[in-house]
Each structure stands twice: as C-alpha cells, then as structure tokens.
Predict the structure.
Amino acid sequence: MHARLAILTVAIMAICACWLLSHAEMYCPFYPGIDTHYAPGFSEANFRKVLPGMMVSEVEALVGKPLFKQKKQTAMEEWGYTDDGKCKWGDFAWLRRAVVVSEGIVISVDRSVRYD
C-alpha cells in the first residue's frame, strides 16, 4: 500500500512540475523538439550537413522543401525548416532550423533553441 501511495505521489508531482515548466517556456531535455513543427521529411542529421556556401539545390536535396520562405532583404531570403507551436498543452522552447540564402547560395545556417 505504501509503495502505491509513493508512486502516485511521485506521478502527481511529476505532472505538476511538467505543467508548471510548460507555462514558463522551458527547454525539455527529455524531448527537445516537443514544441517544434518540422518541414515534411526533415532530418536533423541531414540538416547538420548544411553549410554556408552550399547551393540551394544541394540544401533541398539534403533536407527537402522548407516550411516557409521569407524575404529578408533585397537579395536575401530565409528558409525556415521548423516553427514554434507544436505542443498543444504547453509552451516549451523550440528548435529553430533555418538557412539564409542569397543568389542561390547559403550564407548562414541557424541551429538554435528559441524561447519565444
């Protein structure tokens, strides 16, 4: 009986802790991508291979089409492979994966954790 009560107590505490942490937009070490939408077919392993100087055709061959493309400046465009808001029951940090391209060439790669 005491073992069941102890297990129930720990489970309730864990649920409460998760609820509290999810409302403070914390990073989830057990599931880092818990609040991250990914582009169809996205692979972290392949995204790690994307480097500045690559052609956009190489990027698309590695990680596919982005979730969105957004103009940054006249000749620059951001390709976003992830976005926030996947988790419906809490607000956690999300994994940003994006590249900035100019004239068909990758000029920067963003592999960051976002708390927004």
